[in-house]
Amino acid sequence: RPYLGKFRPIVNQCCHRCTPDSLNLGQNSSLGFRNLLSVNETQTRYRGWLVRRVCFALFVSGRKVYESPVSNRLERLCQSNRMREALTAEHEASEGGDGQGQLKLLSPYHALVNTCISSGFLRFVGWAVLKMFASVFYSIEVNLNHLSALHRVSQEGSPLVYVYVRQSIMDYALIPLVLFCHNLRVPYTVYPLQINSSSLRSILQKVGVILLPPSAQTEQDAEMDSLYSPVMTSLVRELLHEGQAISVGVSPESGQGGQWLARVIQIIKERSVPDVRVVPVGISYDCVPKTNIQVDECNRTLARTHLTREMCESRRCRVEEWLPLQDLLLPVILNNRTEGMFGKRRMSWLLPSSHYASELEEPGHPNRNLSVAIIHHLIFSATSCMAVMATSAVSSLLLYRRRKGVSVSGLCRDVDWLIDEVLLRNRDVGFGGTLANVIHYSLALLGPHLIIAAVPSRKDPFIVPRPSFAATLHLFLQAQTVTQTFILEAVGACAVSAMLCEVAFSGVKEDMEFDVVLCQSNLTERALQLCHLLPPGFMPPCQSSQNFAVDAVDSLVRCGILIIEEIPRDVSICDFWKKDGILTWTTTDDPYHSDSDCEEQDLRSYKIRQPSRCPEMLFFLCSMLAGHLRALCWTTMGLDHIDTPLASITPLKIRKRLCCVLTLLCLCSLCSIQVLSEERQEEGVLLGVGPLFQLSENRQKLHRFISQYLFN
């Protein structure tokens, strides 16, 4: 279709529950997209054949630069109460002495504090990065509607904080480059990797890149220094006082980067700055650049603006119901008790505990919980505005729907159907053009992970994913944006699969014909249990888990998998087995009953639309969460086969031995359920099996609980 991808929905509206004063970006849909790499003479003040040869240099020379001189920043930083207390405590702990000795303690941080933005260096680096990206990417598409809104916001005076999900080393250059090319203030960029070249460090620090100290190889190493956190918090405070913008990347798997957002939140709570606007940023790649970079297409979308101060002061971001995962799931797993699972899962790993060494050491501290809630919200916002790329659509279809292979013509029909479904769910797509060109482009990028065979009896080539772990992992990662788009339906489908699994193991004969009737309360209960296992970024953090589970079940009705069937009120619904062969489940303490005393309990139940054969759509949706669930199962089973003493299992050893796709998320979940216990030592975090799960019987119960959602 020639219009494929040209319709752009207004993606990812503001959360008016947490930030009612947020600014919607993208109300005007007429501006469209622009390829950042398409620079020609029309974007300069000059014309002619010579201009066409040097148009990149002329283009960057005409960009507006908001310079950021240092201007005694180190002195102002040392005058803050936070730094005075940190320097005094550190100096007394080391040797004692006068004020000059305290200043010597800051010598490793002088270069970091003096990071600035120089006009000449920024133009040179901008030109070099543009030339480099022109040889790396096919195009970099920028949503002009969102940029026009950012121009309006930047004129209001409040500093901006850009938040994105870490995917590639290219992320750190994309955001400053796009803002620079559109005459917006270039942010100070937090770069979490170590750079050993002194000349390169000097250049980057003159274009606003905040680097790690030379002595630290990782962010974890830097946070171990008692002076690092107060110095960086004071630096962020000074930058926001100066009106500078900041760009921060967050990792949902490890939580790295969350400490920088916690610093911003802490500064706002202290009223050190009047207001800060946070902009979640979605960056979508057709193929995430690795060490060996290929020619890809990158679609970058700026989402919308949040008022973080509104979230901090009004406490609209609710954290009262956030509970440890062990409180939510252990009674269900070990004792089949469901009364304690109604609550929100606390994801404490999103904020490393070393950030709040004194004030917020306890995982359940209210201020720490609020910071984690806001970080979780921003991760969800950034992932929600990522566009579905062409390779994402093709990868999800080949991995989840056509695992045994499909012809090119069949794949075209599937992609056409999938894009319609994506747009109906108000998710943007990151491509355009004819369907044939989209498929050809996607297969070219995914070619190393596919087997494309020409069969003599067929006109169309036949496509099958390669039966290797590397190919499956690549397709799985590419398909994540599609999974996020269909997360409601995927959770509901896995809940249906779990209940069908119970029917299959209840002694029903295979040749017996029966209709499966699924009670609403039990189906919602299964969906709720699965919600607690989802990684961050999939579920709206400000929505209760119960409401999300109800929406997941309702979504299956909308997409035609389930049919609502009202049970007559004169018929008992407490029987497990009926004479006519209908299976039902129900509970007497339905948590979703109406608050009104005048309304009676809803007796709604559901039937699968095609009882003789499960719909193909159900298979497709169940497969979307199979990667994460199988990783949890493999990690649980792998504990039985590790020959290392359990008290000295490190995350690296588990990662090597299990070869798990989502190792970090699995470890966080298992630690939260107390399957694994953590012990911090000098050489790192050591993991051991918790007391409850040293029994093989309990590990088997955990495995059965997770595997019930895997459709086989």
Automatic annotation (TrEMBL):
InterPro entries given in the database record: GPAT/DHAPAT, GPAT/DHAPAT_C
Query: Residue limits of the GPAT/DHAPAT C-terminal domain?
Result: 379-566
GO BP: fatty acid metabolic process; glycerol-3-phosphate metabolic process; phospholipid biosynthetic process; piRNA processing; triglyceride biosynthetic process
Q: Which Pfam families match?
A: GPAT_C
MF (Gene Ontology): glycerol-3-phosphate O-acyltransferase activity
Choose one Gene Ontology CC annotation of this protein and give it: mitochondrial membrane
Q: What is this protein called?
A: Glycerol-3-phosphate acyltransferase 2, mitochondrial
Give the organism the record lists.
Answer: Amphiprion percula (Orange clownfish)
Show the taxonomic lineage. Eukaryota, Metazoa, Chordata, Craniata, Vertebrata
